[in-house]
Design brief:
Elements (H helix, E strand, L loop, with lengths): L1 H22 L2 E6 L3 H18 L8 E6 L7 H10 L4 E5 L2 H10 L5 E5 L19 E5 L2 H15 L5 E6 L6 H14 L3 E6 L3 H9 L8 E4 L3 H5 L1 H10 L4 E3 L2 H5 L4 E4 L2 H16 L16 E5 H6 L6 H6 L2 E3 L1
Parallel strand pairs: 1-2, 1-3, 3-4, 4-5, 6-7, 6-8, 8-9, 9-10, 11-12
Antiparallel strand pairs: 10-11
Amino acid sequence: MRRRALLASVAAASLAAHARAQALPRIAYMSGRSLATDGHLLEAFKDGLKTIGYVDGQNVTIDVRWADGQYDRVPSLLSELIAAKPDVIAAVGGNPVCVDAKKATSTIPVVFSAGADPMLIGLVSNLSRPDSNLTGITLWAGELDTKRLDLLRALLPSARTVGLLMNPTNPGVAQELVRMTEAAKTLDMELVIMNAETSSGVDRAFETVPEGKLDALAVVADAFLINYRDRILKLAEARKLPAIYPAREFVTDGGLASYGTRWADMYRIVGSYAGRILKGAKPGDLPIQRPNTYELVINQKTARTLSLTVPPIMLARADEVID
């Protein structure tokens, strides 16, 4: 009898714990990148949630999925997450994730982190008062990519032929290419387009360009490319190719230079927006934000390895110099 009573007590406690977990608000976190590259950004998202009073496992449940840079997996992963009936979806790690989240639901609130103009890729039609179930933050990557070309010219005044590594499947890529081509003409640069949309495609993008043809490399902001940053860095290093990248993570891992915002700051905003929606805010009450601070990071050790002398004015402009 005592044994049956004990088992019944344990079962009741387990059911009660399960019921409490089920009662917690639920966030679906869908990233197009991987835990290896973006684990720190998930933590930044959680930090943003904490500012609104939510702690994962205590008063909110976060279901996480990683597409590992494979955009074609996103729709099925989103279906899994939506089956658990989340209260809000965080769609991060690439424009395709945001677009797929919009396609997946018109009722569940979605907070996104997009690289492109959200209006251009069809997420919303109003930035100050989003008129759908989506809101979030945008990097306005097109403007930053052209700025990176300008900085590359300042870093390497003699550079004329520049490889542009981009993902042809990313929404908005056609407009991006037009902007980059116009910027290159203004800077008297010739762009060599290097397309990559699969892991093997990254290697092919480099293999199709003859050795010695490029003076430098510019990598555009794209979740897939960011997910394979280790491989891109190794390929650029093997060719002794100076490059500018979309985020500091490339430079801390050995790249020459980067210009962009701190992603962790963006993910904190996504987390805070998700928390505010759990508190009752509507997506239309939360305007689309964009970063207001950007940073130039230069790796002097890499410059010396490439036998480059970084102009003093660029070192003075840099927000951080890694030496």
